[in-house]
Design a protein that fits this description.
The protein is of the alpha+beta class and 86 residues long. The protein has a domain at 29-86. Helices cover 21% and strands 7% of the residues. It is built from one helix and two strands, in the order ββα. It has one helix at residues 67-84; strands spanning 48-50, 53-55. The chain has a two-stranded antiparallel sheet. The chain starts with 47 loop residues before the first strand and ends with a helix.
Length: 86
């Protein structure tokens, strides 16, 4: 079974890659903006707060192998949080 939908790369992007990486060929652009950002401290990524703003520049979860599966495992929390705002 093909799982090509889990990996997208945009090498023409002016920011590619937007993080320092050893192997650009494995850099995944699918989640250019991480859908887990809204989970704050519960996202599970490597982040810090700078002047009260979440800084995810050191997090590679959305761009790494296995990142798709990890993000999808947390989507229930994203949906729940989004539902609280309605």
């Amino acid at each position: 079974m093909s799982e090509n939908y889990k990996f997208v790369q945009n090498t023409k992007c002016e920011y590619f890659p937007c993080h320092n990486v050893k192997d650009k060929s494995k850099f995944n652009c699918l989640f250019c903006f991480c859908p887990l950002y809204m989970l704050g401290e519960n996202c599970g990524g490597n982040f810090k707060y700078t002047n009260g703003i979440k800084d995810c520049s050191d997090c590679m979860i959305p761009h790494s192998e296995g990142g798709y599966d990890y993000i999808m495992s947390k989507m229930g929390e994203v949906i729940e949080k989004a539902s609280e705002r309605e």
